C-alpha cells in the first residue's frame, strides 16, 4: 500500500515545526514549493517596510541614517544571520548580491596567495559563480580549473590560490562535507570560498567549526528577505585584518564622511561593503529574520529532510514508471532542502503545475525543482505536488504549454 493523503495530514499534525507556518503569508490555493528561489513573505515584513518608507524615510529623511540605525544595518543584520551560519557575529555582514560578493572574495583570496596561479572551481555549480571565476582569472592572469565538487579536494595543488564551490548544489541538492573539503584545501595551502545560496536557512552547518575562510549566502531564498534581498558575506576572523577586496567604495572606507582622497580600509567585516546599502530591501530582510526566532537550524534541516524523503518515496510510488528521473541524493544526510525530478518535458509540466497553484521551478534542460521552505511547507503539500505531476503525466494536459522563451524566468 502506498502512502495516502491522510498519512501526510497525520505527519503534519505531529510536526513540531507546524506552528511556524503561521509566521508566513501563504495565499489561498497556492502550494508553494519554490522557497529555494524566492522565499514566501513572512508576516510583519510589509508593516516594517511601510514604516521605513512612511516614517523613517518620509519623516526622518536623511536623519534616519543615524537615528533609525540605517548606517549600522549591514553589520547588525549580519550579526543576526551569523548563528544560522555557525559563525561568530563580527565576521558577517549584509551587502549587495552573491555574484558581486563572490567577485570581491575571489580577488581578495587571490591577493592573499599572490604567487599561486590557479583557481579551482566546481563544474556544475550555478553558472554565475563560474562566470565570475572566469572573469577574475582573466583579470588577474590566473587559470581556472573546473572539476566536480567531489573532485575539488584532489584538484587543489600547491599552485592553487583559492577553491570555490557550493555547499549545497543548486540542482541536485547534494551537500558537501564542509569541514573535510576545507581541511583538504588548506592542506595544500589554498583558501576556500563557500557558496551558501542553498544552505543558509535550509541546513545546519558551522563555518567557524569547519575553519572556512570565506563564504557568501543568499537573502531572498531560505531567509525569505524578498526579491533581490541583499546577500550576506563571511570573512573568518583570522583574515579580517588582511582581507583586501577590490571594490573599494566609500562604505568600506574607515571614515566615509571624512571624504579623504586616499582610500583607507575600514576595520573588520565592514571593509566588505562598497556602496550605500539598499535600505528598503535591507529592512525587509531584517524583519524577515523574525521567522527564525526560537527555531534551531537542526530542526529546520530535519523537517526539510523529512519532506524530501517523503517526496522521494512518493516519486518511487507514483512517478518513477511515468518517464521521470530523480536527480537528488536518496541519502537525506547528503541532501539539502530541495528535490529535483527530471522529465524531458519538465518545463511544460512545471508550467501546467503552476497553473494549478503548485509552484516549483524549472532548471534547463529537464529539471523540475521543488524547494522546501521548512518553516511553512507541509507534508500534505508534498503529496499534492506529486499527485499533481502524476495527474498531468497521465492526462497529458501539459502538451498544450508552449516551450520557454529565451528570457522567461523559469
Ligand atoms: C548557487 C547560487 N549561486 C549564485 C547565485 C546568484 O545569486 P545573485 O543573483 O545574488 O548573484 C544563485 C542564484 O540563484 C545561486 O543559486
The distinct bound ligands, ions and cofactors come out as: pyridoxal-5'-phosphate
Number of spatially distinct domains: 2
CATH topology of the largest domain: Aspartate Aminotransferase, domain 2
User: How many E-type strands?
Assistant: 15
Distance between the termini: 35 Å
* Poorly predicted parts: none
Q: Give the ordered list of helices and strands.
A: HEEEHHHEHEHEHEHEHEEHHHEEHEEEH
Q: How much helix is in the residues?
A: 25-40%
Oligomer: single chain
What is the CATH H-level superfamily of the largest domain?
A: Type I PLP-dependent aspartate aminotransferase-like (Major domain)
The helix/strand class is alpha/beta
CATH architecture of the largest domain: 3-Layer(aba) Sandwich
- Overall outline: globular
Strand content: 5-15%
What count of helical segments does DSSP give? Answer: 14
Q: How is the secondary structure organized here?
A:
Layout: H1 5-13, E1 24-25, E2 31-32, E3 41-42, H2 45-57, H3 64-67, H4 73-81, E4 92-94, H5 98-112, E5 118-122, H6 127-140, E6 143-147, H7 152-155, E7 160-166, H8 178-187, E8 191-195, H9 207-210, E9 214-217, E10 232-235, H10 237-240, H11 279-288, H12 297-318, E11 325-326, E12 338-342, H13 346-355, E13 358-359, E14 361-363, E15 367-371, H14 379-395
Parallel strand pairs: 2-13, 5-6, 5-7, 7-8, 8-9
Antiparallel strand pairs: 1-3, 4-10, 9-10, 11-12, 12-15, 14-15
This protein binds pyridoxal-5'-phosphate.
The site of pyridoxal-5'-phosphate has 12 residues, from α5 and α6.
Amino acid at each position: 500500500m502506498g502512502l495516502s493523503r491522510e498519512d501526510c495530514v497525520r505527519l503534519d499534525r505531529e510536526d513540531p515545526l507546524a506552528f511556524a507556518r503561521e509566521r508566513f503569508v501563504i495565499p489561498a490555493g497556492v502550494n508553494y514549493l519554490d522557497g529555494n528561489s524566492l522565499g514566501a513573505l513572512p508576516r510583519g515584513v510589509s508593516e516594517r517596510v511601510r514604516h521605513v518608507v512612511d516614517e523613517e524615510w518620509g519623516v526622518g529623511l536623511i536623519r534616519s541614517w543615524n537615528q533609525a540605525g540605517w548606517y549600522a544595518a549591514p553589520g547588525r543584520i549580519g550579526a543576526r544571520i551569523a548563528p544560522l551560519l555557525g559563525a561568530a557575529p563580527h565576521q558577517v555582514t549584509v551587502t549587495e548580491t552573491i555574484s558581486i560578493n563572490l567577485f570581491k572574495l575571489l580577488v581578495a583570496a587571490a591577493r592573499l596567495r599572490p604567487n599561486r596561479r590557479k583557481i579551482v572551481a566546481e563544474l556544475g555549480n550555478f553558472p554565475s559563480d563560474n562566470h565570475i571565476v572566469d572573469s577574475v582569472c582573466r583579470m588577474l592572469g590566473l587559470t581556472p580549473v573546473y572539476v566536480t565538487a567531489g573532485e575539488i579536494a584532489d584538484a587543489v595543488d600547491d599552485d592553487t590560490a583559492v577553491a570555490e564551490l557550493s555547499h549545497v548544489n543548486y540542482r541536485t541538492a547534494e551537500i558537501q562535507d564542509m569541514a573535510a573539503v576545507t581541511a583538504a584545501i588548506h592542506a595544500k595551502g589554498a583558501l576556500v570560498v563557500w557558496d551558501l545560496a542553498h544552505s543558509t536557512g535550509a541546513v545546519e552547518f558551522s563555518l567557524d567549526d569547519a575553519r572556512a575562510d570565506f563564504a557568501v549566502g543568499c537573502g531572498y531564498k531560505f531567509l525569505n528577505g524578498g526579491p533581490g534581498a541583499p546577500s550576506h558575506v563571511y570573512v573568518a576572523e583570522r583574515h579580517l585584518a588582511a582581507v583586501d577586496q577590490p571594490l573599494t567604495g566609500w562604505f568600506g572606507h574607515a571614515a566615509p564622511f571624512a571624504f579623504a582622497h586616499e582610500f583607507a580600509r575600514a576595520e573588520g567585516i565592514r571593509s566588505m561593503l562598497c556602496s550605500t546599502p539598499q535600505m528598503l530591501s535591507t529592512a525587509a530582510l531584517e524583519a524577515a529574520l523574525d521567522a527564525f526566532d526560537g527555531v534551531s537550524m537542526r530542526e529546520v534541516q530535519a523537517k526539510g529532510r523529512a519532506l524530501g524523503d517523503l517526496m522521494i518515496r512518493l516519486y518511487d510510488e507514483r512517478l518513477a514508471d511515468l518517464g521521470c528521473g530523480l536527480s537528488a541524493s536518496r541519502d537525506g544526510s547528503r541532501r539539502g532542502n530541495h528535490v529535483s525530478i527530471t522529465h524531458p518535458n519538465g518545463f511544460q509540466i512545471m508550467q501546467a503545475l503552476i497553473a494549478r497553484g503548485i509552484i516549483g521551478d524549472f532548471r534547463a534542460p529537464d529539471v523540475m525543482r521543488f524547494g522546501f521552505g521548512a518553516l511553512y511547507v507541509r507534508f500534505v503539500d508534498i503529496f499534492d505536488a506529486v499527485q499533481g505531476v502524476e495527474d498531468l503525466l497521465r492526462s497529458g494536459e501539459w502538451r498544450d504549454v508552449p516551450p520557454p522563451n529565451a528570457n522567461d524566468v523559469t
